[in-house]
Amino acid sequence: MNHVRIAVVVVSVFLCVSAISASLRDISAPSASLRGSSASLRDQQQPTFRATTDVVIVDVGVRSNGDPIAGLTAKDFDLSDNGVRQTIDSVQMEDVPVDVSILLDDVMDVADDIKGMTENIGKIVGMVRPTDRVRVMSIGPYVRDLIPAQPAAAIKSFGPWTPKGLSSAFDGLAAALLRPVEPDRRHLIIAITNGVDATSAIDIRALRDIAKRSSATLHIAQVDMDKEINPPNPPIYRTGIERLTAAKRAASNEPIKYFWRPMADNQQEVLEVIADSTGGKLYLPGVFTDRSAAAIFKKVFEDYRRRYVLRYTRTGVPRDGWHAISVTIPAHPNYEINSRAGYAVDPSTPSPGAPPASPPRVTTPRTIAEITDAYGRGDYAAAMAGIAASRTQTELIKDFHELNNPWPGSPNKESAFVIEMAHEVFASRRQADQSPARRLIQDHRRLVRGQFGADAFERLWLFAAVAAAQNTLDNEMTDEFAEYGLTRFPNEPRFVLARAVAKDTEKPFGSLAREAGHVKEVATLYDKAIALDEVTVEARIRKAWLLYRAGGRAPEALALLDAAEAPAGDPFMAYLRQIMRGRVLASLDRVDDALAAFRAAQAIAPAQSSRVGMMAMLLRQGDRTAAETQAARVETMPASAGDPWWGYWLGDYRRFPDIVRRLRELSK
User: Fold this and answer.
1) What is the DSSP pairing of strand 88-92 with strand 84-86?
2) Which residue from 202, 415, 473, 527 has the fewest beta carbons nearer than 10 Å?
3) What are the respective helix, strand and coil percentages of the chain, to the nearest 5?
4) pLDDT digits (tens, 9 = 90+) for 152-175
5) Helix (H), strand (E) at residue 91
6) CATH number for 656
7) Helix, strand or coil for residue 523?
8) How does DSSP classify residue 138?
9) What residue spans of 10-96 are helical by DSSP H?
10) Owning domain of residue 662
11) Based on the domain organization, do 335 and 454 belong to the same domain?
12) ∠ CA(488), CA(494), CA(498), 5° rounding?
């Protein structure tokens, strides 16, 4: 069966965290212009889909027992605009142009399927008509346009592109659903996703609310399923992160498990409801039928072209603002009717995003001798690039052992290099190389001890080892290094907090309502960290998120977040505190306060998660125009930007670049 395979995988986010750290340092004191822009959305240009006249069109699907109904005329429909009955001027089918938005999960596991995906996109482009426009969006860590909206004939090729990161499926779906569309066109969205969300700022409830207010028709092609090897009878199908069987992992050297996602809103049933509410559908793979992306689109598009387009001239209601639409067929009350929920009036244009910066070019050494020589000269970028580019990292580690200390007069330099080398190997995610890198740190621990007992360099070195382990998302390794650190530096705050984060990471996502024992154990570890002044604020914030995820404990979580106040000198956690406050307050239906929290986060860092949170709350307030403004900005944010939300479960890894710089300075 030809299908596109898309799955969430865990990837190294060192470059992402470096970008986040740099951006947060630059904006630790928000400028007046930034504060002003987040506080006065209505003063900015605000894009939205609407007419510049009083003529409105409504896309309507009519079915009976699942089959489309043809032959209806204007006299058959009853349409009201904000409760006022309207006169339908015309009813059309087929000839109304369509804007087609294709959403792709943009994660590293699609790398093997780039050719298949590009072929599917090409087939889809070939099916649309000359009057239709096509846009391709990626929903990786950032939501962005791979192909801006344009006539299909203008698209000569698609790809290749480099998939990366974790999926923000909910944020991408929300942005697409709110995308402005001209009133004389229709908007069809086909999302090729497994429905497993990893990094979105909004939850499934917010996405459902947005879908109810959207004018688009959404179809979700969940084509990320593989059959079990040697399947039982009947076959078992697994989706998302469940799809890799033990046998397949062994054959492909893929990870035993995916260690981390900030949340696990893999709620297939709710996604089906969301698609249905727009007049669309959720498609699951079939055993005997062709469920490739192109095949699904062909069926969807043929059906979509058989929907009615009702045109009327708005009368009896104010022009500006939100207009709720109701469509019925009085003579046939049993017909199933799908139509847009409404529309808004107030045109404008979004600002384009800045292009991503080009990465610097470095000369890449190959052998361990060349790598250590570059490191000794202070050419750290070249040394790390050489380790990262090596296809035999285990052999590099072996060669390093045989080389002995390349800097006999500076043992601290060797220790610093060991940490950086292990980090680069960890970041590669190649399973065969992980254990040798882990043993490299384990073996070196006794060599880094100070001559007269534990000293500042050893503590910093162990801190780096813990941070590097946290980036692997391997809670067992993190706990091992943190526990060892506590044997050398009892009650060291960062090691105490790292043990709590490691335990929390065992079950980091989704609701923990059925995991009372786990919640209690992790909360106790966080309480130990709360008692230590250096990490009190961060430990409270992390415990609050634990309680919120446990379900039904939002008031307790909010009390902890409020008690934490703003972490001094740590804009990373200050941002996350406001994002969490926004999520918790939204769950308590305190929409105005939630919006204020998301805006506060946006003032700290102009990131996707805060914008999407603002978008969802603005829509709940009924301010669709401002919500659409945020939706457009989400899609135009530069791909080079970072988002602190992605780094929550990485603990102190955000500090790793600074720790390494200090180790280098102390080893000269």
Assistant:
1) unpaired
2) 527
3) 50, 15, 35
4) 878 877 666 665 666 777 888 888
5) strand 88-92
6) 1.25.40.10
7) helix
8) E
9) 14-26, 32-39
10) 449-666
11) no
12) 100
